[in-house]
Specification:
2 domains, alpha+beta, single chain, 9 strands, nine-stranded antiparallel beta sheet
Protein backbone atom coordinates (compact mmCIF):
# COMPACT_ATOMS: atom_id res chain seq x y z
CA UNK A 1 0.00 0.00 0.00
CA UNK A 2 1.12 3.44 -0.71
CA UNK A 3 1.70 5.80 1.96
CA UNK A 4 -0.96 8.40 2.60
CA UNK A 5 0.14 11.95 2.38
CA UNK A 6 0.03 14.22 5.39
CA UNK A 7 -3.48 15.59 6.05
CA UNK A 8 -5.16 12.89 4.03
CA UNK A 9 -7.37 10.15 5.33
CA UNK A 10 -6.40 6.58 4.81
CA UNK A 11 -9.95 5.68 3.73
CA UNK A 12 -12.37 7.47 1.41
CA UNK A 13 -14.55 10.00 3.29
CA UNK A 14 -18.18 10.97 2.48
CA UNK A 15 -19.31 14.47 3.43
CA UNK A 16 -21.56 14.83 6.47
CA UNK A 17 -24.06 17.04 4.57
CA UNK A 18 -25.36 14.94 1.76
CA UNK A 19 -26.17 17.32 -1.12
CA UNK A 20 -26.30 14.53 -3.53
CA UNK A 21 -30.16 14.30 -3.47
CA UNK A 22 -31.86 15.78 -6.52
CA UNK A 23 -34.29 18.69 -5.98
CA UNK A 24 -37.95 18.21 -6.90
CA UNK A 25 -38.95 20.57 -9.76
CA UNK A 26 -41.59 23.15 -8.60
CA UNK A 27 -42.91 23.99 -12.03
CA UNK A 28 -45.58 21.27 -12.26
CA UNK A 29 -47.10 21.79 -8.75
CA UNK A 30 -47.22 25.58 -9.31
CA UNK A 31 -49.01 25.15 -12.65
CA UNK A 32 -51.50 22.68 -11.16
CA UNK A 33 -52.23 25.01 -8.21
CA UNK A 34 -52.68 28.02 -10.51
CA UNK A 35 -55.08 26.13 -12.78
CA UNK A 36 -57.14 24.88 -9.81
CA UNK A 37 -57.38 28.36 -8.25
CA UNK A 38 -58.38 29.87 -11.60
CA UNK A 39 -61.15 27.29 -12.04
CA UNK A 40 -62.41 27.86 -8.49
CA UNK A 41 -62.42 31.64 -9.03
CA UNK A 42 -64.28 31.35 -12.36
CA UNK A 43 -66.92 29.03 -10.89
CA UNK A 44 -67.38 31.30 -7.87
CA UNK A 45 -67.70 34.39 -10.08
CA UNK A 46 -70.20 32.65 -12.33
CA UNK A 47 -72.33 31.53 -9.37
CA UNK A 48 -72.25 35.00 -7.82
CA UNK A 49 -73.27 36.61 -11.12
CA UNK A 50 -76.13 34.12 -11.51
CA UNK A 51 -77.32 34.78 -7.99
CA UNK A 52 -77.29 38.54 -8.52
CA UNK A 53 -79.05 38.25 -11.87
CA UNK A 54 -81.74 36.04 -10.35
CA UNK A 55 -82.38 38.42 -7.43
CA UNK A 56 -82.08 41.67 -9.36
CA UNK A 57 -85.29 43.70 -9.32
CA UNK A 58 -87.07 44.31 -12.59
CA UNK A 59 -86.12 47.69 -14.01
CA UNK A 60 -88.96 50.10 -13.34
CA UNK A 61 -90.05 52.71 -15.83
CA UNK A 62 -89.14 56.27 -14.92
CA UNK A 63 -91.79 57.56 -12.57
CA UNK A 64 -93.11 61.02 -13.22
CA UNK A 65 -92.36 63.35 -10.36
CA UNK A 66 -95.26 63.71 -8.00
CA UNK A 67 -96.44 67.27 -7.93
CA UNK A 68 -98.31 68.14 -4.79
CA UNK A 69 -100.99 70.68 -5.35
CA UNK A 70 -100.85 73.66 -3.03
CA UNK A 71 -104.03 75.05 -1.54
CA UNK A 72 -105.40 77.32 -4.24
CA UNK A 73 -108.03 80.01 -3.99
CA UNK A 74 -109.94 81.94 -6.61
CA UNK A 75 -109.23 81.97 -10.32
CA UNK A 76 -106.31 84.09 -11.43
CA UNK A 77 -106.97 87.12 -13.65
CA UNK A 78 -108.14 86.52 -17.22
CA UNK A 79 -104.91 88.03 -18.60
CA UNK A 80 -102.98 85.54 -16.43
CA UNK A 81 -105.17 82.70 -17.76
CA UNK A 82 -104.33 83.80 -21.31
CA UNK A 83 -100.59 83.96 -20.60
CA UNK A 84 -100.81 80.57 -18.90
CA UNK A 85 -102.30 79.00 -22.02
CA UNK A 86 -99.45 80.49 -24.09
CA UNK A 87 -96.96 78.87 -21.69
CA UNK A 88 -98.68 75.46 -21.72
CA UNK A 89 -100.69 75.60 -18.49
CA UNK A 90 -102.95 72.62 -17.85
CA UNK A 91 -106.49 73.95 -17.36
CA UNK A 92 -107.42 76.92 -15.22
CA UNK A 93 -104.95 78.84 -13.09
CA UNK A 94 -105.85 79.42 -9.44
CA UNK A 95 -104.20 81.77 -6.94
CA UNK A 96 -101.75 80.26 -4.48
CA UNK A 97 -100.28 83.59 -3.34
CA UNK A 98 -101.15 87.23 -4.00
CA UNK A 99 -99.12 90.06 -2.45
CA UNK A 100 -98.79 93.80 -2.88
CA UNK A 101 -95.49 95.58 -2.16
CA UNK A 102 -94.79 99.08 -0.84
CA UNK A 103 -93.85 100.05 -4.42
CA UNK A 104 -97.39 99.03 -5.49
CA UNK A 105 -96.26 95.95 -7.44
CA UNK A 106 -98.76 93.12 -7.20
CA UNK A 107 -97.51 89.54 -7.59
CA UNK A 108 -99.68 86.50 -8.24
CA UNK A 109 -98.44 82.95 -7.92
CA UNK A 110 -100.89 80.75 -9.79
CA UNK A 111 -101.15 76.99 -10.08
CA UNK A 112 -102.59 74.96 -12.94
CA UNK A 113 -104.54 71.72 -12.57
CA UNK A 114 -101.39 69.57 -12.74
CA UNK A 115 -99.60 71.55 -10.03
CA UNK A 116 -97.31 73.68 -12.21
CA UNK A 117 -96.68 77.15 -10.79
CA UNK A 118 -96.62 80.48 -12.64
CA UNK A 119 -95.51 83.98 -11.61
CA UNK A 120 -97.36 87.05 -12.85
CA UNK A 121 -96.66 90.57 -11.59
CA UNK A 122 -97.65 94.08 -12.59
CA UNK A 123 -96.40 97.45 -11.38
CA UNK A 124 -99.38 99.29 -9.96
CA UNK A 125 -101.61 96.26 -9.51
CA UNK A 126 -104.48 94.71 -11.44
CA UNK A 127 -106.05 98.04 -12.40
CA UNK A 128 -102.83 99.67 -13.71
CA UNK A 129 -101.63 99.52 -17.30
CA UNK A 130 -100.56 95.99 -18.34
CA UNK A 131 -97.75 95.76 -20.87
CA UNK A 132 -96.05 92.37 -20.79
CA UNK A 133 -92.28 92.61 -20.32
CA UNK A 134 -92.55 96.31 -19.50
CA UNK A 135 -94.97 96.88 -16.61
CA UNK A 136 -95.98 93.23 -16.30
CA UNK A 137 -93.99 90.00 -16.16
CA UNK A 138 -95.20 86.43 -16.61
CA UNK A 139 -92.87 83.52 -15.79
CA UNK A 140 -93.33 79.77 -15.83
CA UNK A 141 -91.22 77.08 -14.10
CA UNK A 142 -91.74 78.58 -10.65
CA UNK A 143 -90.20 76.61 -7.79
CA UNK A 144 -91.61 76.35 -4.28
CA UNK A 145 -89.46 75.69 -1.21
CA UNK A 146 -92.29 74.05 0.73
CA UNK A 147 -92.34 76.85 3.30
CA UNK A 148 -94.16 79.56 1.35
CA UNK A 149 -91.36 81.04 -0.77
CA UNK A 150 -91.59 80.95 -4.57
CA UNK A 151 -88.79 81.62 -7.08
CA UNK A 152 -88.72 82.15 -10.83
CA UNK A 153 -85.97 83.17 -13.24
CA UNK A 154 -86.32 85.09 -16.48
CA UNK A 155 -85.04 83.11 -19.46
CA UNK A 156 -83.47 86.15 -21.13
CA UNK A 157 -81.32 87.94 -18.56
CA UNK A 158 -81.52 85.29 -15.75
CA UNK A 159 -82.93 87.76 -13.19
CA UNK A 160 -84.45 85.83 -10.28
CA UNK A 161 -87.69 86.85 -8.57
CA UNK A 162 -88.27 85.41 -5.10
CA UNK A 163 -91.52 86.15 -3.31
CA UNK A 164 -93.27 85.15 -0.10
CA UNK A 165 -95.84 86.72 2.20
CA UNK A 166 -93.24 89.15 3.61
CA UNK A 167 -91.19 90.43 0.64
CA UNK A 168 -90.32 90.38 -3.02
CA UNK A 169 -86.60 90.06 -3.80
CA UNK A 170 -85.31 90.72 -7.31
CA UNK A 171 -81.74 89.49 -7.86
CA UNK A 172 -80.18 90.82 -11.05
CA UNK A 173 -77.31 89.02 -12.75
CA UNK A 174 -75.06 92.08 -12.33
CA UNK A 175 -75.28 91.59 -8.54
CA UNK A 176 -77.90 94.26 -7.76
CA UNK A 177 -80.62 93.12 -5.39
CA UNK A 178 -83.94 94.91 -4.93
CA UNK A 179 -86.10 94.16 -1.92
CA UNK A 180 -89.72 95.25 -1.66
CA UNK A 181 -91.61 94.68 1.55
CA UNK A 182 -95.12 93.31 1.33
CA UNK A 183 -97.94 95.47 2.71
CA UNK A 184 -101.36 94.32 3.84
CA UNK A 185 -104.19 94.91 1.42
Amino acid sequence: MDRVGAGCHPVPVTPHDDHSQQRQPLFIPVVITTVLLTIIGMVGGYLLAEKRAGNAPEPRPEAEPTISLLPAGQLCLERTQKMGRQFGADGELRQVLRVRTKKRTVVWICQDESGELFYHANKGGADAEWVENKTALFLDKVSHDGAGTFSATTPTDRTTFTVNSERLVIAHTDGRVEEQDVVPE
